[in-house]
């Protein structure tokens, strides 16, 4: 196959050797790695994407010079300042005198971060720490995307599109820009998608493309360890994902994921017992964060605002780039544009609809089972549809005042399904014609350009165009004092978390010993 660089103006000046080399480079973008050269190219491409992602977030957050006096940055800055003092003093962060919080009981606030990487505040100021924290969670998310690439043998081009849409869509960039620091938990969603796809498929890990040495077998083993089995091991990993979300303070994301899984369980009754058990284990494993919050805010939900005012607004949120200085210039004054921003661009939306919706519906069985939970969350994100659910006597359910945010979970699943559908489309058309290859590369470049434009206009230095603020003192101090109800809730949550973790580990270990190995894993291990 000739990827005709011949059509380029400078092609006549190239030697045949140079032309062949350029055609091979183009070819590498459109097929998964099956030999040593292709694996090297794929690794270099992935490294390039990762470094571009790190650079993006460093520039997005202005290298740590963050406007902590604006909007929700005041609360996030108070959290980080308080944690910094707790780390320096070597005390538990129990009570705070911060000005921009709802209660002095720090660990009873479900959106307050309390995660191992917070220890870095001992060495970093709160501005640089925010950048490092995002890069750390972005790196975890990148590992999750690599596992998806490995499991489904995605070509470099497909992986690049998946990478761009997941990491730089309008939802995550807009929320982080306005100071929703807990949204870093979003980057854990690839692991949830992996687990759900494993459950939907109901089979072992597909055999890795090609043969390889030690590192290829190690990567295959990593996929098997993470996704092998849909019993207790599956429940363990799901519970760990939810624990990670709660530790980042991303309880909103955790709740949306729970609604998605429950809606999926109602579609696939054969999976419902496993899902209910896994969600129960997830709640118990995260009890350290859930029990104090449930005690503090039981029956005291926030004022409901709205989801997307209309379906038209939902579609506009996907394709219209609203700059920050227009984020409140519309009829719904109580609903800032950053709350509904889900920008993927026109090309991104076409990609999701054609390969994610139409492609999965035609040829994506059993993935089409995911359409029901996707539709459920989309419907709940509209207007006041979710409002009656906030009246239920369930912990944290009444905390969702802006259900438009729900859209990001079905959007992430559609991004992954579209990537799988696009890869299937490529496989059916290999070898590609020269025109097809150039068109696809041009479309991918324009998609990346649109997402870059969104990040450029929503980076944190642009928040001065949206909010006004005066310099504030974010200093927060430890004011720990006897508080029996709060301390009892923390101790109860801690005991439940530890006991649940022990139970899950033991049951997953026993399941691993009693269950036969999958043929793919046994074959890979014997090489």
Report on this model:
Helix 16 runs antiparallel to helix 17. The longest helix is centred in the last third of the chain and has 31 residues. The protein is built from 20 helices and no strands. The protein has one domain. With 527 residues, the protein is mostly helical.
Key descriptive features of the protein:
single chain, disordered C terminus, mainly alpha, 527 residues
As a whole number of angstroms, the C-alpha radius of gyration is 24 Å
Note the overall shape. globular
Could you spell the SSE succession in H and E letters?
HHHHHHHHHHHHHHHHHHHH
The count of strands amounts to 0
Helix- and strand-based class?
mainly alpha
Number of helices: 20
Count of domain modules: 1
Overall mean confidence score, pLDDT: 87
Q: Termini separation (Å)?
A: 33 Å
Major sheet details: none
Beta-strand content bin: under 5%
> Which residue ranges are poorly predicted, with pLDDT under 50 across at least 5 consecutive positions?
1-11, 203-211, 224-229, 523-527
Q: Specify the helix fraction band.
A: 55-70%
Task: Give the secondary structure arrangement, pairings included.
Layout: H1 16-28, H2 36-60, H3 73-89, H4 126-152, H5 156-168, H6 170-177, H7 189-201, H8 214-227, H9 232-247, H10 251-267, H11 272-285, H12 287-297, H13 311-319, H14 337-340, H15 345-363, H16 371-380, H17 408-429, H18 434-458, H19 484-514, H20 519-526
Helix pairs in contact: 2-4, 2-5, 4-5, 4-7, 5-17, 5-18, 6-18, 7-9, 9-11, 9-19, 10-11, 10-16, 12-19, 15-17, 15-18, 16-17
